[in-house]
Write a structure and sequence with these properties.
The chain is α+β, with helices and mostly antiparallel strands. It has 6 helices and 12 strands. The chain has helices at residues 20-33, 50-59, 70-77, 109-119, 164-169, 207-215; strands spanning 39-46, 64-66, 100-105, 124-125, 137-140, 142-143, 174-177, 180-183, 195-199, 221-222, 224-232, 237-240. The strands form 4 sheets. It has a 5-stranded antiparallel beta sheet, with helices on both faces. A hairpin with a 2-residue loop joins strand 7 and strand 8 (180-183). Helix 1 (20-33) packs across helix 3. The termini are far apart.
């Protein structure tokens, strides 16, 4: 039977690819900033969230911040003394790998570094699959509460009975007892842990674990900006700051200024 022409799947999440013009504009914008600002910083971002990045842009409104393909940003700076767009700025190129961006500013490094720490403070969100758990999370045996034991029972409320089927689907051995969701000891949850272990510190979280963490309103992802290195026009020198911030990341970015 021929396939109906009416039956079509429309993807609502489709986005436009970056055009050549967009990439050329990013390249030119970076080069225009080099002579206009005194300092160029390479910074990394842990647990990237666009909402929090917008806050950073607003706080640094007198500066220019770029996210893009790391190879493109490196080409704009230069790879050698011969093609370096400014004296020694090419020495920043090796630091352009992973989830990193460029920040052009006239603010003094001694002033900017603590400001970035302050801007990214207390910015947490729900973890996504692939995130490394920063701590243990265990749901205690007995009546299951909304925060999964994160706060004392007298300050919490029992989790809604409508979530019992989803908890069971996610592998948590719960059942209804007198209208309350109860977690009982069983083979699924190690008894010595005092409850059902959702994750342990250092675990690479999967989608099931992140869903459970979200159900219990547990945020394990912290948005953090770290300066990797910076170049100063006055000295034409590159100063490393936190090269460990690049460890374990190799992907290019897709964002832009």
């Amino acid at each position: 039977m021929p396939k109906s022409k009416r039956s079509k799947v429309v993807h609502m999440t489709q986005v436009n690819k970056k055009t050549r013009e967009h990439k050329e504009r990013l390249f030119e914008n970076i080069r225009e900033c080099i002579p206009q600002y005194q300092h160029c910083f390479v910074f990394s971002v842990d647990n990237m969230r666009n909402t929090y990045l917008k806050d950073v842009r607003q706080e640094l409104s007198d500066s220019r911040l770029f996210f893009g393909k790391t190879k493109l940003m490196a080409r704009a700076l230069g790879h050698s003394p011969e093609d370096s767009y400014a004296d020694n700025i090419y020495q920043l190129s090796p630091y352009l790998r992973g989830t990193v961006g460029l920040l052009f500013t006239n603010r003094n490094p001694d002033q900017l570094l603590p400001e970035l720490d302050s801007i990214s403070q207390d910015k947490v969100d729900f973890a996504r699959a692939g995130t490394v758990a920063s701590r243990d999370f265990v749901v205690p045996y007995g009546t299951v509460y909304a925060t999964g034991g994160e706060v004392p029972a007298e300050h919490d409320v029992p989790i809604g009975h409508t979530l019992e089927p989803e908890l069971r689907r996610l592998g948590v051995p719960v059942r209804m007892v007198k209208g309350r969701v109860v977690l009982e000891e069983g083979p699924e949850g190690p008894q010595e842990a005092g409850g059902y272990v959702v994750c342990k510190e250092g675990d690479v979280l999967d989608s099931r674990q992140t869903r459970l963490l979200k159900l219990f309103s547990v945020c394990l992802s912290e948005f953090k900006i770290k300066v990797v290195a910076y170049w100063s026009a006055a000295t034409t020198k590159v100063t490393p700051v936190d090269t460990e911030a690049m460890d374990g990341v190799e992907e290019d970015n897709e964002g832009s200024d």
